[in-house]
Structures are given as structure tokens and as C-alpha cells.
Amino acid sequence: AWLSAVESVRDVSEVKPLDLLLLLLLHKNQQRRKTVESIIRNKIRAGLFTEELVTSTFHKHIAPLKQHMVAVLALAEALLECSEDIVVSFAREIYSSSFSMLGAFCQQEVV
What we know:
This protein is an all-alpha fold. Helices cover 74% and strands 0% of the residues. It has eight helices and no strands. The protein has helices at 2-8, 17-26, 33-45, 51-60, 62-67, 69-80, 85-101, 104-110. α2 (17-26) packs across α4 and α7 (85-101) packs antiparallel against α8 (104-110). The protein is globular and about 35 Å long.
């Protein structure tokens, strides 16, 4: 249901940091991984998911992001495989925010 709700969003003002957080958590599910990646790439292309959304998500939801750091990095890695600059920039922002906000253990994982 959440995937459908996020997919139906067409205005940047409707996008919330919680949307990105929940997609990240859904990305942990192997059966939904490709679907989640596709939704995120499409939202990035449409200008709905921005680097500012990543930053805001990290500021507002730092505790669950720390708990699911491996999933955060797995999503960033998957997005880095895309050949589109806008998607790669989004992935870089995930890595950058992870490095600066998730603590020493995450910094080791990113490096």
C-alpha cells in the first residue's frame, strides 16, 4: 500500500522524509528491492526526490537510519549503478549524509 501511495505522488510539496525512510526500509525486502529502486529512480528523474530530501530525512529520522545503516548503504550502492547523473548525485548525497551523520562505524563502512 505504501509503494502505491508514494508512486501516486505528483507534486514535490507532497513528498515527505518519511516516504524516503519507508522506501529505504522496504528496500531490505529482496522481493521488493527492484520495485523500490525503480520507484526511487523515477521520483528522482521527476524532480520529486531531491538531495534536500535526503538531508531532511537524515535530520528527522536519524535513529532508524542508524539502526538500518546497512540497508541505507545498499540502496546508495544500487543507485550508484545507474548511468544517469541525477540519480548518481542522489546516491552520493546518501553516502555523504551517512558519513557525516551516522557515526564512526558507518564512516568505516563508507570508506
